[in-house]
Amino acid sequence: MKRTFIAALLAISFAACSINYEKAPSGLTYKIFKGNGTQKPKAGEFIKFNVEFRLMDRDSVLKSTFGSLPGYGPVDTSKRAQYSFMEIIPLMNVGDSAVVSMSIDSLKNKGMIQGYDPLFVKGQVMLAKVKLLQVFKKEGDVEADYKKSLDDEKGNEEKAIEAYLAKHNLKGEKGKNGTYVVVEDAGDPALKADSGKKVSVMYRGSLLTNGYVFDTNMDTTKGHTAPLDFVVDAPGMIPGFSDGITFFGKGGKGKLFIPAMLGYGPQAQGKEIPAFSNLIFDIEVKDVTDAPPPQPVNPKVQQMQQQMQKMHQQKQDSTKKK
Q1: What pLDDT does residue 293 have?
Q2: Domain of 129, in residue numbers
Q3: Which of 93, 124, 180, 280 is the most buried (most CB within 10 A)?
Q4: For the chain, how many structural domains are there in total?
């Protein structure tokens, strides 16, 4: 399998210039590329960064924050940071970039991955590309910057969907939470898929970027054809789906364009859905009914849950006092 240009370049530079790479106390191998900044992160402070993880033996990015929501976290100088890119953060200045090489064998031996599998194989190397963006002294400053970055990410997702709709001459209505909906057939207005209603839906989910179908029950390609039943706005369904389905009644058909932050956000769903993926769902509402009443809570189970919560709170309070 061909490597991308960046992966190949990193592989060549690592092999040719290995004597220039440094080794951390844990055995981690890294190379820091200096920027123009002079501020160095210290223990007790917080950082904003971009990071990309890539396997050297294949053309695949495992996870990346570049071009999406940056990562945030405390500066960790403890043993917990060893053999991760966080170990070299205190050696970097704001504006610096770094390449970190991690052996899959070492990650396994240190218990940082569960074991070898089709993704992580013996003798393999994982590279982390890191960019240190900013240092914060107060947690409140981190929260404010994170909110701004989150707003920027949401804005970029909306622009990507709006550009797609314009390119394909589609007119989408915007849901109350931000899902874009193209209504082909609104369905029965007397049986609307309102909040709290139980709906039965046929769907085909695909990625906005390349049209890859990651799941469907409209045919047998994904191994299941039963309708998807759920209660609108109940936990368990991605927010964007519940947001968009309310435009339809029984028999309704259309498309939902779900921004990543109303879908799975920064959490990749295996290899099928990368992190920060905008999603498209072709949907058909087969039925809309009243949701079944909630099941009564067993008093003994409720009492046990309350006792466990109380014990957990007492343990937290005790820890704070120490």
Answers
A1: 78
A2: 5-138
A3: 180
A4: 2
